[in-house]
Amino acid sequence: MKNNLTQVTLSNGLKLLLKEIHTAPIISAWLWYRVGSRDEVAGRTGISHWVEHMQFKGTQQFPANLLDRSISRDGGTWNAFTYIDWTAYFETMPADKIDLALRLEADRMLNSRFDPEEVASERTVIISEREGNENEPLFLLGEALQQTAFRVHPYHHEVIGDMADLRAMTRDDLYNHYHTYYVPNNAVMAMAGDFDTQAMLTRIRELFETVPAGSEPARLARPEPPQNGEVRLSVEGPGTTSYVQVCYRFPPASHPDFFPLSVLDSLLAGPSNLNMFSGGISNKTSRLYRALVDKEYVVSVHGGAQATIDPFVYTITMTIHPSRQPEEALAALDREIKRVKDEKVTKDEITRAIKQARAIFAYGSENITNQAFWLGYAEMFAKYNWFETYLDKLSAVTAREIQRVANEYFKRQSRVVGTYVPLEGRHDGK
Amino acid sequence: MTVNKLNSLPGPDDIYRAVLPNGIVVLTRSNFNSPSVVVSGFFDAGALFDPDEKLGLAEYTVAALMRGTQKRTFDEIYNALESVGASLGFNTGIHKSGFNGRSLAEDLPLLFDLLAEALTAPAFPKAELERLRAQLLTGLAIRAEDTGDMASLVFDQILFKGHPYSRPEDGYPETIRNIRRNDLVKFHREHYGPRGMVIAVVGAVKPEDALRQVKRALGGWHVRAQKEAPELPPLKMLKKSVSRHHRIRGKSQSDLVIGTNGPMRRDPEFMPASIGNNILGQFGMMGRIGDVVREKSGLAYYAYSSMTAGLGPGSWEVSAGVSPQNVKKASGLIVDELKRFVQEGVTADELADTKANFIGRLPLSLESNGGIANALLNIERHNLGLDYYRRYADLVNEVTAEDVLNTARKFIDPGKLVVAVAGP
């Protein structure tokens, strides 16, 4: 896996990772910026995501419609994602057409227009995006959990932002945010696919090295203080189905405990899939499925581990069985959590988790976009080496470590339990 | 070193096709770039066979296949699969049911064993069926609250009134409650069999190995009285526009679906319609529809057009999620675009853009094992020929603006549209 990878940092601080893969005539280019909702203060929540939208609204050289048209015409696919820790833009193109993507990314690192009329029309588009999210019970519940789990740390709010801020932010707020964070020394460019590294390197230098470095963006330093006592909350809304979400404190991806916790996640709830472009596997023989779904407390259960810069949360989501109460499901969950704290897991369970991770890695490597994604993604919270050594680190996990992290992280006094209470009353299944 | 473009597309020289004596068609293509394999396929046991009062039976049956077989319990089946990081799942459409599985190449024999057991020897254990029923009913309760799902469902009910396509494959709560174990046993006995089954195997396996494994797993399967699918009744065309608002309380956004009939996959109009549809509501940021509803008016996060073109009559629809107070305004803009589409057709520039887009994006859609497997199944289902993806560029390039306009006019009458809305 280490073959064909070149890492270079340009004079303006832009870090490059280039990996040649000659399996299909395709190249995927990703530009990652170290900015996300973690960089937002009250009054400007959602600004990183809105800036991402504005990056599709054009520069002098590439007006909005031309941009879109050129990429699509060449049979490319492009998109962008804003997360709590980062914002990423990608283009996957036929190999002989990638130059367009590079020119575009170099240009919009500096020259996006943020035309006031476009800002106004995008405001209602994003409000509509948020309204669509609000249609979903699990969005409403997840948002309530997150703002409860993080009182101080900016992980407090959802990436989409609060409606009040979406209505109030100005064009200048957006433009300042853009200029503060969209500088080469705050970015990573990752490419994988059918190219020659030396030629590509030369071209990237031509296009990107002229973009001046900016000041190192200041970061909010507001670590979340310890939580001393379980918090329970409820959200009421339309529907007939109840949901319960439980979130526990989770270490950052760069922490050594992330690996035993990943194995624990795998055997409790089925492996979380960190690939962005290939699905995971079912979890019907995970401990929680057996204890909760087979025993008919819930109709589905899922766990979600995420790789983040600062400590985040691990969330277990349960869709409650129509003939059960949320409290019964929670009690059954607690019995399973107690079991991983009291008893060591077996060697077989660990072996199984590692094999699952190996298979999911193989599925992810079928696709060049996904491989390019990993090059930059890993850089956002660690180094690419994190990804390359991931399976080895999982393989080194012991049953004793798993028991230790279960006791350390799955603590009742630092968790938040949220229930979605459907207003149409309980669905009785008859 | 660069990769030759045309040779990366599947074609007669690297797709292997075989027909087993019991009728199963096997298609394989090797890809040793990653140590994984995909197995996908379909068979003739779709929701078309469901009685009205037991709608959802085909879906209930596929969902139950892995809940226990003559050899293994539910837990044993999934333990075998999940222990090696493999997956296998079944699904249902109107005409066909299907399956998708994948594993590391070393575990392919296991995947075939489980596939064969599930298809040929399901046990339908009673307790598991009741668990499944609660899950299906919860799924329907969630569907009832989903504005997008409900707008689509209402759209199909109106457009395909009196036709089996008006029925949702997942049924209704009352029809799911009507289904008994014996219904599943009977459905399986009458409709499951090798005739009409197609299996694609793509990934890190040689074609002869793949074929041998399919033979070993399913070559001995014979079913004497596999029933023929019922004939589709003729479609009743709309005489005027029909609107319906399905009320879902407490939601912050409404979904709307506006549209009409579309071509079948095998119709000569399919390609011109696809190209027209791309211009109408897909190209770039959701085509003309996206430009008017999202970019210019800021009314919606998503607004796009789509076609469903399968073995029977299709649909051609525009979907959008908008604030409840903007439903009327957005609908007006969409209908205006449909009028413009059938009056003026598409420009030479738009046509050139879409043709380049269709041809250029092909390697990307065929990149993963799953993408290739879908392509192989598509070839077989619609009899497109093994060289289809090599001929694809020519098929796209021969479409003229006039073809697009004629096709648009044939299917879309702005005075006869279905307008389905779900929301507050």
Describe this structure in words.
The complex is a heterodimer of chains A (430) and B (424). Chain A has 430 residues and is of the alpha+beta class. Chain A folds into two domains: 5-208, Metalloenzyme, LuxS/M16 peptidase-like (Cytochrome Bc1 Complex, Chain A, domain 1); 231-422, Metalloenzyme, LuxS/M16 peptidase-like (Cytochrome Bc1 Complex, Chain A, domain 1), CATH 3.30.830.10. Chain A contains 16 helices and eleven strands. Chain B folds into two domains: 13-218, Metalloenzyme, LuxS/M16 peptidase-like (Cytochrome Bc1 Complex, Chain A, domain 1); 242-423, Metalloenzyme, LuxS/M16 peptidase-like (Cytochrome Bc1 Complex, Chain A, domain 1, 2-Layer Sandwich). Chain B has helices at residues 57-64, 74-83, 108-120, 126-144, 147-159, 173-178, 181-191, 207-218, 270-281, 283-296, 327-344, 348-360, 362-365, 369-381, 388-397, 401-411, and strands at residues 16-19, 25-30, 36-43, 87-92, 97-104, 198-203, 242-247, 254-262, 300-308, 314-322, 418-423. Chain B has 424 residues and is of the alpha+beta class. Chain B is built from 16 helices and eleven strands. In chain B, 52% of the residues are buried. The model of chain B has no long low-confidence stretch (mean pLDDT 95). In chain B, a hairpin with a 4-residue loop joins strand 4 and strand 5. In chain B, helix 3 runs parallel beside helix 8. Chain B has a six-stranded mixed beta sheet, with helices on both faces. Chains A and B meet through helix 2, helix 4 and helix 12 of A and helix 2, strand 5, helix 4, helix 10 and strand 9 of B.
